[in-house]
Amino acid sequence: MELFLVVAVTHFIALLSPGPDFFLILTTLFREGRHAARCVCLGIVCGNIVVIGFVFVSLFMLGQLNHGILDVVKWGGTIYLSYLSYRCFAYARHADFTPDTQMDSGGQKVSEKLKLLFYGIQSSVLNPKNILFYATIILAIYQPYTAWKLCLVSVWMVCIVLFWNLWLIHLISHKRALDWFQSKIKMMYLLSGLCFAVFAVVLLFN
């Protein structure tokens, strides 16, 4: 129980730290609405499942994380974060946020939903910090926990990420928050673009 509490607290602190996933959800919410942001959330969850699966496969088959794959993820993540930064700065030049229409638009085509889902998967998978974080957590519980306990903890972590991100969307979509964001939309895009750029630089030189 003590070990699980340590895992729970560590995971919660990590969720409180804004990362690429948070800013991707934020910019998607502003640009395409609540339903689109939820699709991104689902993609992020799928990406977390892929990351956790990769950690388990690496431990089972190799006994350690594959550094070659980490290098590929590092460069892919740097390029992807740079692309997101560019998109945010481009959006800032033509910032237009109308919450009455944007927040309730749920008519995306299947292809658009799949694209948003893929954006979320990319954000999660192409972030080596996700791999290192989940690897650290799993390594801490790998020996003392049985297989079914490892599965339960993994499912718990994925569900927490999903509920946390959906709660953020609900919170940001509140009328007072929307009114504030409407007056600060250009600044928020610029801030998001700057954060993506910083994430890319830190990832490149880490």
From TrEMBL:
Domain of life per record: Bacteria
An annotated Gene Ontology molecular function: amino acid transmembrane transporter activity
Keywords (A to Z) from UniProt: Cell membrane, Membrane, Transmembrane, Transmembrane helix
GO cellular component: plasma membrane
Keyword field contains NADP: no
Subcellular location: Cell membrane
Topology relative to the membrane: Multi-pass membrane protein
Keyword Ligase among UniProt keywords: no
Transmembrane intervals: 6-27, 39-63, 116-141, 147-167, 188-205
Protein name, per record: LysE family translocator
Organism: Acinetobacter nematophilus
